[in-house]
Design brief:
Number of helices: 5
Helix content: 55-70%
Shape: globular
Strand content: under 5%
Order of helices and strands: HHHHH
Length: 118
């Protein structure tokens, strides 16, 4: 199994885009496992060298929407704050589904398990 990249919210290394990881980690508990696991699918797909440039742009846009403070629905609203983020992530996943390989799924699941101590 080839590993493209490992995310650990508690450590830093030179290979990681630390800002993105830090921002995702900051919203992880509030957003919940479902949103974050789907975001991790996108993250690992973008790190896959086989993912084409157009798909990377879609993924970066969706991940930016998740971590940036400007949203259609503010994230601080309980119960509905992350529904718009989930919608954007789901649309991006649908657009790049071909690049969500079994390996990408496994990496996302493992990272989500570490983050949410499953």
């Amino acid at each position: 199994m080839t590993r493209y990249h490992t995310i650990d919210a508690n450590t830093q290394d030179a290979e990681k885009p630390a800002g993105l990881v830090r921002k995702i980690a900051r919203v992880a508990k509030r957003a919940g496992r479902t949103v974050i696991q789907k975001a991790l699918l996108l993250y690992y797909a973008v790190r896959n060298p086989a993912t084409p440039a157009w798909a990377r742009r879609v993924i970066y846009g969706a991940l930016a929407y998740l971590v940036l403070p400007v949203d259609a629905l503010p994230d601080f609203i309980p119960g509905v704050g992350f529904t718009d983020d989930l919608s954007v992530i789901a649309a991006a996943l649908a657009a790049v589904a071909y690049y969500i390989t079994p390996e990408v799924k496994q990496q996302a699941e493992q990272a989500a398990n570490r983050w949410f101590k499953h």
